[in-house]
Amino acid sequence: MKRAIWVSVVVIVAVTLLVVAGARSLLVDDQPTGDPVAVEKQVPQRPDCPAGLDLPCLGGDVAGEAKEITVVNVWAWWCQPCRAELPAVEEFARTHPEYTVVGVHADQNAGNGAALLEDLGVGLPSYQDDSGAFAAEQGLPPVVPVTVVLRGGEQVAVFAKEFTSAEELAAAVQGAL
User: Fold this and answer.
1) Which domain holds residue 103?
2) Is the per-residue pLDDT at 13 higher than 80?
3) Among candidates 176, 162, 177, 173, which has minimal Cα distance to 87?
4) Coiled-coil ranges per the record (predicted)?
5) Which end of the chain is more exposed for a tag (fewer CB within 10 A), N or C?
6) CB neighbourhood size of 84 (10 A)
7) How far, in Å, CA of 48 to CA of 136, rounded?
8) Strand partners of residue 147
9) Is residue 37 in a domain?
10) Domain for residue 161, yes or no?
11) What is the pLDDT of residues 22-60, one digit of tens each?
């Protein structure tokens, strides 16, 4: 009886290790992490980022000046609420040209972030933040999505929630200003 229990334990451990190894191989991507030049080669149609945040641009170059009000949407490629929210953020950017609106991809896998934007058809300029520097600098909660409103580089508001429409985001930003 003891031998049967021992064999069962060994089989369970072996199967568990195989499942973990298989899951890891599915989750780990061979794409570069945090190398904006390599990401630009993979996804050449990503837009340039406006100046204003000290992070690498996820795709294009950093060009142009930011406006007085900047709305920053912090997201990650694996986040389902972010996936739903990004098109609304892009619509908000399109309907509110008076603001600089950008995304910050808060994950080490820049390639997956750029791929998600492409899959969604979202052309929102986005920065890559593999180390969480922006969130730390702004004192953000450890969740995504989170939206930050900056005036002249100073934080005005933080919204740790998913916005379901451009109108909802516009109301929140206008209420904060």
Assistant:
1) 50-176
2) no
3) 162
4) none
5) N
6) 14
7) 24
8) 73, 159
9) no
10) yes
11) 445 444 444 444 444 444 434 435 656 666 666 656 555
- Whether residue 105 is contained in a domain is answered as yes
Identify the helix (H) or strand (E) that includes residue 172.
helix 166-176
What is the identity of the amino acid at 69? I
The closest alpha carbon to 167, from 86, 63, 89, 115, belongs to 89
Q: How far apart are CA 125 and CA 142, in angstroms?
A: 22
Q: In what order do the strands lie in the sheet with 100-105?
A: 126-128, 100-105, 69-75, 146-151, 154-159
The per-residue pLDDT of the chain, averaged, comes to 78
Number of domains in the chain: 1
Q: Is the C-alpha dihedral spanning 5, 7, 10, 12 positive or negative? A: negative
